[in-house]
Amino acid sequence: MDEVPPIILIATPILLPIATSIGIDPIQFCIIMVLNCGIGLLTPPVGALLFIGSAVAKLPMERVVKATLPFYVCMLITLVLITFIPGISMLLPNLMH
User: Fold this and answer.
1) 2-29, pLDDT tens digit by residue?
2) By CB count within 10 A, which of 10, 30, 41, 89 is most buried?
3) Rounded mean pLDDT of the chain?
4) Which of these, 51, 48, 40, lies nearest to 2 by C-alpha position?
5) In the chain, where the domains are located
6) Whether the Cβ atoms of residue 42 and residue 64 lie closer than 8 Å to each other
7) How many C-beta atoms surround the C-beta of residue 36 within 10 A?
8) Quick one: how far is CA 62 from the chain centroid?
9) Which residues touch 25 (CB under 8 Å, ≥6 apart)?
10) DSSP letter, residue 43
């Protein structure tokens, strides 16, 4: 939504040099960053997508949050796997080189 581009524009110049200095590939860093932004859009209390989902479904926010809990778990597991096993996120980029 509207929060992601400013986050990427502000955080990338600060975090990318740190990530590359500890050995994280820039492509992997971008994948990690975009996934983190997606998780942030769904996480209460400021998750914009929760408000949109709640309004569209005409359900209270608490019910929408409870319904999305399994997805939070999947996203966090994916984030951990992508972060600590670079081969997962770098498979396609490595095939293109």
Assistant:
1) 778 888 999 999 999 999 999 999 999 9
2) 89
3) 90
4) 48
5) 33-97
6) no
7) 15
8) 22
9) 86, 90
10) S
Decide: 64 and 70 in contact? Cβ < 8 Å: no
Nearest-5° angle of CA 33, CA 91, CA 10?
15
- Contact predicate 4/37, CB 8 Å: yes
- Token pair, residue 14, equals 């600060």
Query: Residue 43: its pLDDT value, please?
Result: 84
Nearest to 3 by CA among 32, 55, 29, 39: 39
* Separation of alpha carbons 4 and 41, rounded Å: 8
Question: Does the predicted model carry a pTM greater than 0.70?
Answer: yes
Token pair listed for 24: 């994280």
